[in-house]
Amino acid sequence: LYGNGNATAFAGANIKSVENVNAQLTAGGALDVSANAGVKQATIIAGSTGAHTVTLTKAQMGGLAGSVGAATQTFTFKDATAATNDAAKIALDAAKIDAGGGVTVHGIETLTLSAEGKNTLRTLTSDSVSSLVIDGAGSVSVTGVAGGGSFKSIDASANTGGGSINIAAAAAADLSIKG
User: Fold this and answer.
1) Element (H, E) at 134
2) 14 pLDDT tier (thresholds 50, 70, 90)
3) Are the C-beta atoms of 124 and 103 separated by less than 8 Å?
Protein backbone atom coordinates (compact mmCIF):
# COMPACT_ATOMS: atom_id res chain seq x y z
CA LEU A 1 0.00 0.00 0.00
CA TYR A 2 1.21 3.45 -0.77
CA GLY A 3 -0.15 6.41 1.17
CA ASN A 4 -2.31 7.01 4.21
CA GLY A 5 -5.56 7.09 2.22
CA ASN A 6 -5.04 3.58 0.86
CA ALA A 7 -4.12 2.32 4.32
CA THR A 8 -7.29 3.83 5.78
CA ALA A 9 -9.42 2.26 3.05
CA PHE A 10 -7.83 -1.15 3.67
CA ALA A 11 -9.40 -1.41 7.13
CA GLY A 12 -12.92 -1.47 5.70
CA ALA A 13 -12.17 -3.53 2.62
CA ASN A 14 -13.16 -7.16 2.16
CA ILE A 15 -9.75 -8.61 1.32
CA LYS A 16 -9.17 -12.18 0.18
CA SER A 17 -5.95 -14.06 -0.61
CA VAL A 18 -3.64 -11.34 0.76
CA GLU A 19 -1.23 -12.59 3.41
CA ASN A 20 1.37 -9.82 3.54
CA VAL A 21 0.66 -6.10 3.54
CA ASN A 22 3.60 -3.73 3.06
CA ALA A 23 2.75 -0.08 3.68
CA GLN A 24 4.68 3.08 2.90
CA LEU A 25 2.97 5.83 4.89
CA THR A 26 3.41 9.49 5.73
CA ALA A 27 3.13 11.12 9.16
CA GLY A 28 0.06 10.07 11.10
CA GLY A 29 -0.56 7.01 8.94
CA ALA A 30 -2.61 4.16 10.37
CA LEU A 31 -2.98 0.64 9.05
CA ASP A 32 -5.65 -1.63 10.55
CA VAL A 33 -5.54 -5.24 9.33
CA SER A 34 -7.34 -6.73 12.35
CA ALA A 35 -10.60 -7.38 10.45
CA ASN A 36 -8.78 -9.21 7.65
CA ALA A 37 -8.07 -12.65 9.11
CA GLY A 38 -6.22 -13.76 5.98
CA VAL A 39 -3.49 -11.17 6.53
CA LYS A 40 -0.56 -12.81 8.29
CA GLN A 41 1.83 -9.85 8.42
CA ALA A 42 1.57 -6.04 8.19
CA THR A 43 4.86 -4.21 7.67
CA ILE A 44 5.81 -0.53 7.67
CA ILE A 45 8.46 -0.27 4.94
CA ALA A 46 11.37 1.98 3.98
CA GLY A 47 10.38 5.39 2.70
CA SER A 48 7.67 5.83 5.34
CA THR A 49 7.89 9.12 7.20
CA GLY A 50 6.54 10.15 10.59
CA ALA A 51 4.75 8.20 13.31
CA HIS A 52 2.43 5.33 12.39
CA THR A 53 0.04 2.94 14.10
CA VAL A 54 -0.52 -0.64 12.99
CA THR A 55 -3.53 -2.46 14.47
CA LEU A 56 -3.47 -6.25 14.34
CA THR A 57 -4.65 -9.36 16.11
CA LYS A 58 -2.32 -11.63 18.08
CA ALA A 59 -2.48 -14.15 15.22
CA GLN A 60 -0.97 -11.57 12.88
CA MET A 61 2.63 -10.38 12.82
CA GLY A 62 3.76 -6.78 12.73
CA GLY A 63 6.84 -5.77 10.81
CA LEU A 64 9.40 -3.06 10.10
CA ALA A 65 11.60 -3.14 7.00
CA GLY A 66 14.31 -0.65 6.09
CA SER A 67 14.68 2.93 7.29
CA VAL A 68 11.42 4.37 8.64
CA GLY A 69 12.69 7.69 10.01
CA ALA A 70 12.87 9.26 13.47
CA ALA A 71 9.34 8.75 14.78
CA THR A 72 7.52 6.18 16.89
CA GLN A 73 6.08 3.11 15.19
CA THR A 74 3.19 1.76 17.29
CA PHE A 75 1.79 -1.78 17.18
CA THR A 76 -1.56 -2.37 18.88
CA PHE A 77 -2.99 -5.87 19.18
CA LYS A 78 -6.76 -5.47 19.21
CA ASP A 79 -7.61 -8.83 20.81
CA ALA A 80 -5.05 -8.61 23.62
CA THR A 81 -6.58 -8.52 27.09
CA ALA A 82 -5.20 -6.99 30.26
CA ALA A 83 -3.31 -9.17 32.73
CA THR A 84 -3.17 -12.27 30.53
CA ASN A 85 -0.19 -13.87 28.84
CA ASP A 86 -0.76 -12.42 25.37
CA ALA A 87 2.04 -13.11 22.90
CA ALA A 88 2.84 -11.50 19.56
CA LYS A 89 5.67 -11.17 17.05
CA ILE A 90 7.24 -8.32 15.11
CA ALA A 91 9.47 -9.17 12.14
CA LEU A 92 12.48 -6.92 11.63
CA ASP A 93 14.16 -6.80 8.24
CA ALA A 94 17.11 -4.38 8.33
CA ALA A 95 14.80 -2.01 10.23
CA LYS A 96 16.28 1.34 11.13
CA ILE A 97 14.66 3.98 13.30
CA ASP A 98 16.63 7.19 13.63
CA ALA A 99 17.36 9.05 16.88
CA GLY A 100 14.20 10.38 18.49
CA GLY A 101 12.06 7.45 17.33
CA GLY A 102 11.27 4.00 18.57
CA VAL A 103 8.78 1.16 18.76
CA THR A 104 5.75 1.07 21.07
CA VAL A 105 3.76 -2.11 21.66
CA HIS A 106 0.35 -2.19 23.37
CA GLY A 107 -1.39 -5.08 25.12
CA ILE A 108 1.25 -7.81 24.75
CA GLU A 109 3.05 -9.51 27.64
CA THR A 110 5.44 -11.69 25.58
CA LEU A 111 6.93 -9.94 22.57
CA THR A 112 9.12 -11.75 20.04
CA LEU A 113 11.35 -9.76 17.72
CA SER A 114 12.34 -11.90 14.71
CA ALA A 115 15.45 -10.30 13.22
CA GLU A 116 17.00 -10.44 9.76
CA GLY A 117 19.81 -8.04 8.83
CA LYS A 118 21.02 -5.21 11.07
CA ASN A 119 18.15 -3.65 13.07
CA THR A 120 18.27 -0.42 15.09
CA LEU A 121 15.07 0.27 17.04
CA ARG A 122 16.18 3.07 19.37
CA THR A 123 13.60 2.84 22.18
CA LEU A 124 11.23 -0.05 22.88
CA THR A 125 8.27 1.01 24.99
CA SER A 126 5.32 -1.04 26.18
CA ASP A 127 2.43 -0.87 28.60
CA SER A 128 2.48 -4.65 29.11
CA VAL A 129 5.62 -6.47 27.91
CA SER A 130 7.19 -8.50 30.66
CA SER A 131 9.11 -10.92 28.42
CA LEU A 132 11.15 -9.99 25.35
CA VAL A 133 12.27 -12.81 23.04
CA ILE A 134 14.69 -12.20 20.17
CA ASP A 135 15.20 -14.80 17.45
CA GLY A 136 16.48 -14.99 13.89
CA ALA A 137 19.87 -14.43 12.26
CA GLY A 138 19.85 -10.62 12.37
CA SER A 139 21.21 -8.24 14.97
CA VAL A 140 19.05 -6.03 17.18
CA SER A 141 20.12 -2.79 18.85
CA VAL A 142 17.80 -1.08 21.35
CA THR A 143 19.11 2.02 23.11
CA GLY A 144 16.39 2.06 25.77
CA VAL A 145 13.64 -0.20 27.10
CA ALA A 146 10.67 0.93 29.18
CA GLY A 147 7.94 -1.44 30.27
CA GLY A 148 5.93 0.19 32.97
CA GLY A 149 7.77 -1.70 35.73
CA SER A 150 6.64 -5.13 34.51
CA PHE A 151 9.73 -5.95 32.40
CA LYS A 152 11.09 -9.27 33.73
CA SER A 153 13.07 -11.19 31.08
CA ILE A 154 15.05 -11.08 27.85
CA ASP A 155 15.67 -14.32 25.97
CA ALA A 156 17.96 -14.03 22.95
CA SER A 157 19.11 -17.66 23.01
CA ALA A 158 17.51 -18.32 19.58
CA ASN A 159 19.19 -15.27 18.00
CA THR A 160 22.45 -15.77 16.10
CA GLY A 161 22.97 -12.17 14.96
CA GLY A 162 23.81 -10.55 18.28
CA GLY A 163 23.12 -6.99 19.28
CA SER A 164 22.66 -4.84 22.33
CA ILE A 165 19.84 -3.71 24.59
CA ASN A 166 20.16 -0.91 27.13
CA ILE A 167 17.96 -2.01 30.03
CA ALA A 168 18.66 0.91 32.39
CA ALA A 169 15.09 2.28 32.07
CA ALA A 170 13.37 -1.12 32.33
CA ALA A 171 12.47 -0.49 36.00
CA ALA A 172 12.72 -4.17 36.93
CA ALA A 173 14.00 -5.30 40.28
CA ASP A 174 14.77 -8.81 39.01
CA LEU A 175 15.57 -9.17 35.33
CA SER A 176 16.45 -12.54 33.80
CA ILE A 177 18.70 -12.38 30.75
CA LYS A 178 19.38 -15.43 28.57
CA GLY A 179 21.33 -15.72 25.33
Assistant:
1) strand 131-136
2) confident
3) yes
